[in-house]
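Posted in: Structural Biology > Protein-Ligand Complexes

Title: Requesting predicted complex, phosphoenolpyruvate in pocket

I'd be grateful if someone could produce the 3D structure tokens for the following input. Sequence and ligand are given below.
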Amino acid sequence: MLSLVSSQANFPLHSLLQKLTELLKMPQTLLSRLTFALKTISEEMGAEAAFLYLLTPDNYLEVFAAYDPTLHDRHTARFRVGEGVVGFIASTGKSIICDNISHHPNFFYCPGVAEQTNLSLLGAPLLSPRGVIGVLTLQNPASKPFEQWREKALTEISNFLAALPELAHFPVLTPLEGKVERTQLFQGIPLSSGIAVGTAFIHHPHTWKETAFSLNIKDESDRLKRAIREMVDAIDRLVESTPNLEKNMQDVLASYRMIASDRGWIRKMQNYIQKGLTAEAAVQKVRRHTREHYAQIGDQVLKGSLSDLEDLASRLLRHLSGKDSVSEDLPEATILVAHNLGPAELLDYDRRFIKGVVLEEGVHTAHVAIVARALDIPVVGRIPFLLTHVNKGDKLIVDGEEGTITISPSTDALQEAREKITKIKKNQALNKELSNKPCQTLDGIPVSLMLNAGLPIDLHHLEELRIEGVGLYRTEIPFMMRSSFPDVKIQTEIYRDVLDQAKDYPVTFRTLDIGGDKIVPYMWRVSDENPVLGWRGIRVSLDKTTILRGQARALIRASQGKNLRLLFPLVSDISEYREARRHVQQEWDRAQENQTPLPLSLTYGVMIEVPSLVEQLDVLLKEVDFVSVGTNDLFQFFYACDRTNPIVSNRYDILSSSFLRYLRKIRNMCEEANVPVSICGEAAGKPFQALALLALGYHSLSVSGPAAGSLKKMILSLPLKEAEAFMTSALETYSPSLKEDLLAFAKTHKVEV
Ligand code: PEP
Ligand code: MG
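-- Reply #1 --
Done. Output follows.
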């Protein structure tokens, strides 16, 4: 039965439904009546356009009626059930509210016809007792999103339309078809590697639904103090009970504990208590303010810190309610599904059962990701609307290698995931076996395999595979994990720790490469329209020379008695390199004057990531000791194609003959100048792509730890001379991708790619 209760007290849902009843009784055709109805719905619901899709006998959702004063061509829009956001609403039978439709994982872009970018959408299924017969959507520009309460109102309106007698003969998607247990694959980002298969368990942060006001201010204030004390003690116990915490993770938990005792946070809550709120209401109030504040900033890295604050608020509410731990009945192989998690929240769960984690939010530097990596738990993050897709008890595959999750996987997908898990285990065993073999191709050409690292925890791969050293140490990660800028003393400790853990392996430190997608929250004042083209890499270090000078000072101090290799990121012009080098040299001279013990040597390298630098390479090569090609950035600037944007990122291939020719040119220039060159972008980590790079003459590759084992296997099986001949002839003609040719080469020559 239709409920006529408005979702928001002052919204006249009742009178709107009456108006619609009158309109739909008019003598015009069904189409005209529905178009009038959509116009009225749009106006009353604050929308600029409305569409009514009905199901066709061949299982498509087609626009049946539309009110859209600006665009007419979308009236032909057609979606298969499950396709696009409209198809998603029909297949799940759930209403949806999206602030920007293009962020929805099911978004289906079809210029001029179907779902448009930069739109906010409110949609609800037309649910009749027979099942779903269509979908009603309202649209606005993304700058004018719908309020949450309108979702309920739209559900009532679409239920009303679904009950129209004229629609009774339209085809219907039965609830069974709509709720099919069919496999759904979602792409997110990998936050911790590994693969897990298990059962979904939804993590619910503690919520509180009791009295908001109290006259007894002193009692409430004491309760809050006591709860905070208990919480901090409990966090300490948690840290103590987590064995083998490496230094970095200790730092993470220490900074989390620091937030727990943060005076500003506690003062804000106490202020609300003074105004008459209960301790619980004060916690909630501050939590809501923090959320709003972070939502306005809208930055991904800051969201990492927000999850710590959210975690702490939930934890504090739990202590106020007298429960200090989560005691849950977990499935034996649990995949924790959450909007977001704090590091301690993850540690609250019994680690024997947690096989994987999936988050709606999450960033690479989030503390939970770092803790999960240390505990070897695969994590995938940034799956929008995750909690509307997954239910408790769903079977899930978490692929922390590819950054995907599969809900209700097919038997084949499960089989494939289990094979991948076995392969990872085998690879770990194989790595041990391979570690004793020299890294050379089948025809005896030595290849220098190095490691990309960003945390000391990555360094165990050095010994595991006897990798030659660290080809790229990304120094920015500790900066991004902290809540304030690490001073020279702290930085010296960090770099010393890295060098100690790397034992005698050489380490190439890249100076701070922040900006773009790597924001350091406490120092960011600028908001770039195009961050990837904006204030990042060496540009930041040269504008804020105290950063570069401080980092150089710390690196010089930490490298006493060792060789210091420095690499500058995102250099676009030779003058930037010269300026950066001059600053480092001044620090060196200063250390010498102060009689600070110096490193054994200091060598300078530059990342080749910007095409403009390639045109200055002949001059640059006379002034540097080594170069490293960062294919991640170089590729995106070469094709003017944002690699994180799925709409364009699949259009160009790193294995296109044009990009490979470009890489060949760089490599030949380095050889002529006798300057060592390596590749440290992701391209080097995929065996068949690395095959192409080796065939171009790059004999030094720097890759992530997990990629190194399979890469070495490929190298050992590669007849390099033949690969070079193949590449020379393949590059004579134009091809958008040589992938298939390379795979065919690998197959005939039994190369293990
Ligand atoms: C690159 O751009 O290829 C690179 C290695 O740098 P990062 O991925 O850290 O930007
Ligand atoms: Mg880069």
